[in-house]
Amino acid sequence: MVLFKKSAALQKWLGKQRKKGKIIGFVPTMGALHDGHLSLIEASKKHNSITVSSIFVNPTQFNDPADFEKYPITLEKDIQLLEQADCDVLFLPSVSEIYPEWATANEQYDLGYLETILEGKYRPGHFQGVCKVVKRLLEKVQPGNLYLGQKDYQQCMVITKLTELMGWKNTMKVNICPTLREPDGLAMSSRNMRLDKEEREKAPAIYRALTYIKSNLQKGDLQPVKVKALQMLVDQGFKPDYIEIADAATLQLSNEWDGRQKLVTVAAAFLNEVRLIDNLLLND
Ligand code: PAF
Questions:
Q1: Integer angstrom CA distances of residue 178 from 36, 171, 184, 195
Q2: pTM for the model
Q3: CA-based nearest residue to 190, from 27, 67, 72, 275
Q4: Ligand 1 centroid vs 221 CA: distance in angstroms?
Q5: CATH H-level, domain 2-177: superfamily
């Protein structure tokens, strides 16, 4: 695996590969890698001649400074895992490499409705920060294929929208890969590393609540099933931000179901200090 810390060197190397007709697959990460990330590398390896991954804990997407401070960093292990997964390139930039214009950067992305609901509502500024970093990474890597995990459902929609806003829709395909789960259902996430033993035992309740919604979905009023699922989380000691049902394509929140609309259920909840998110497609 080739490691680049500087954008100029990365771009020069990738430029040469592109001239040779190589197709580039890209897996952006914030490190603390787990099997979910590795499944994205595997998907990219299957369909591209070169797989690039990046590790950058992006300060502009943390609306809560304490969350940024405590974000797990396991760089040595991450590099080992990427080597084992046969990743071709790792981009490991510094903050000044990504944000040389830090003080003057005040770009805004028009994310519309997506920024007013769910993660957008509970983490103000988060998606603007995601767009800032992903735009910069995509400009440098210029992949033909981008790989994202479905666990961050709304983020997948935001980044897809970003590629449209930037006019990259026809040159860059956004590939959304299934969420990987632990045997007890807990969605794999870097934040799981912050759970203590007791919290880790409680954490799968979020998956059980979503599964409850999936198994009990009925035409008509969706309120009762949402209320029961919320209670399941509260009973396990979670402090939920939300557990919602929404249109799978637009994320418009739904209170009624006609029996046909494609839906997704999404949840975000704190277990003490750790905020977990998850989602399930309801009728895929
Ligand atoms: O999902 C993540 O790990 C991050 O939000 C991303 C896409 C790498 C941008 O920092």
A1: 9, 23, 16, 23
A2: 0.97
A3: 72
A4: 35
A5: HUPs (3.40.50.620)
Domain 190-279 listed as CATH 3.40.1280.10: no
Asked if residue 157 has pLDDT above 80, the reply is: yes
- Token reading at 54: 């990046």
Ligand 1, atom 5: closest residue by C-alpha = 130
Per domain, the residue ranges of the chain are 2-177, 190-279
**From atom 1 of ligand 1, which residue's Cα is the shortest distance away?**
29
Cβ pair 277, 266 in contact under 8 A: yes
The answer to whether 186 and 269 are in contact (CB under 8 A) is no
For residues 133 and 186, give the distance between their C-alpha atoms in angstroms, rounded to a whole number. Answer: 28
Catalytic status, residue 126: no
Instruction: Calculate mean pLDDT across residues 219-227.
Output: 98
Say which residue the tokens 């300060």 belong to.
59
Look up residue 52 and give its amino acid: V
